[in-house]
């Protein structure tokens, strides 16, 4: 980048040394360059779909066919795209850091895993899992598309003599995030606090809780905070270091691994 005097300004790198523990929080912006629409942008998913009807337990109760059509479309779209350099850069970072790295993603598309990330907490669930809307059977792998009027029913409930629909294993508005997922993040931040802890948020609007307040939890543990986003998110002032732009470009050169 050229400075006011025409000289080159070196972009500050995020130095990763042997004492660094890094928690990365990702959102829809990270998958945007793979061709998956974000939620709140002008072409965002919520522009064409009423949030409360497709991403809430009440919406599912009122119109399960509409909800399954929405998530079936999302399954089809996610299947046809590939991880981008942003996903790959995070997978490489994990390879270098091992257990000193944890990725909490709000994305349900599975692209981080496809890029090679393994230490991943899918905070809002997975497009590729289905669960029962009634019983406690474990969510199971499912890439099926249910958009032809056929709604899937729970076989476990059927065996017990009642009818219940299956639903996507997604955390909808008003639903709790899995306590084991939040506990894993909390444990990582506590362990990291004994070292140099870094909190890095990427491609998220900071509009949805509790993900948006994780930065405060990390700050309370002494974390250094970094943000990579196309535009300032709702919680931008909580970050000390900000890089504005597309994550697929920035993440390729952000880290200085020593
Ligand atoms: C780029 C880029 C590029 C673009 N490079 N960047 C406290 C206060 C107020 C309300 C609440 C609160 N605590 C809880 C709530 C209620 C609610 C909530 O947060 N509401 C807010 C909207 C106000 N939260 C919940 O209900 C949560 N449950 C819960 O807390 O339970 C307890 C409780 C319930 C009720 C009351 C109180 C407590 C559950 C939230 C589940 C969210 N689920 C969704 C949908 C399901 C997933 C799916 O279908 O895929 O998850 S909502 C949707 O938003 C989705 C996303 O994961 C989530 C976050 O969106 P994200 O990732 O930030 O995307 P965008 O589109 O918003 O932003 C993209 C960003 O990327 C932008 O900034 C771009 O600039 C940027 N970008 N291209 C870098 N190339």
Describe this structure in words.
The chain starts with 13 loop residues before the first strand and ends with a strand. Helices cover 34% and strands 21% of the residues. Residues 2-7 have low confidence and may be disordered. Strand 3 (101-105), helix 7 (111-115) and strand 4 (120-122) form a beta-alpha-beta unit. The protein has helices spanning 28-32, 45-48, 51-54, 57-62, 64-79, 85-97, 111-115, 155-159, 179-192, 214-220, 247-254; strands at 14-16, 20-26, 101-105, 120-122, 125-132, 140-141, 166-170, 196-202, 224-229, 241-244, 255-257. The strands form three sheets. It has a six-stranded parallel sheet with strand order 4-3-2-8-9-10, sandwiched between helices. The chain binds ligand BJW. Ligand BJW binds at residues 27-29, 32-33, 38-41, 44, 55, 106, 108, 124, 170-176, 203-205, 207-210, 229-231, 233, 246-247.
Shape summary:
globular
- Helix percentage: 25-40%
CATH superfamily of the largest domain, called what?
TPP-binding domain
Under the CATH scheme, which architecture of the largest domain would be assigned? 3-Layer(aba) Sandwich
Count of beta strands = 11
The value of Rg in angstroms is: 20 Å
Class by SSE composition: alpha/beta
Largest sheet entry: 6 strands, parallel
CATH topology of the largest domain: Rossmann fold
CATH class of the largest domain: Alpha Beta
Measured by DSSP, the beta-strand proportion falls in 15-25%
What is the string of SSEs from the N terminus onward? EEHHHHHHEHEEEHEHEHEEHE
